[in-house]
Structure to design on (94 residues):
């Protein structure tokens, strides 16, 4: 990606790879409805159907990866989004 360096410096992002992945995800989210409308408007329903199938497969793959990561984190004794050294804070209501 061409503008990753200047954009990461302007936004004070330490990891340029994370910024490039985020930029690709945002571009995919913005362009998918455009391609759908274009294919539907041109009456290319076979390509439109394949685009929907591909999108479903990608979403299913991401879901499976997140579930497997969640299972691995829980086996280590922490939740999927908590660091390992997190302990519950004492309740102020005792």
């Amino acid at each position: 990606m061409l503008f990753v360096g200047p954009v990461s410096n302007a936004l004070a992002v330490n990891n340029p790879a994370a910024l490039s992945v985020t930029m690709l995800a945002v571009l995919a989210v913005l362009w998918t409805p455009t391609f759908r409308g274009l294919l539907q408007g041109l009456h290319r329903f076979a390509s439109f159907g394949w685009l929907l199938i591909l999108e479903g497969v990608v979403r299913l793959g991401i879901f499976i990866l997140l579930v497997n990561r969640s299972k691995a984190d829980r086996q280590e004794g922490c939740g999927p989004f908590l660091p390992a050294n997190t302990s519950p804070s004492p309740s102020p209501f005792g």
Observations:
- The radius of gyration is 20 Å.
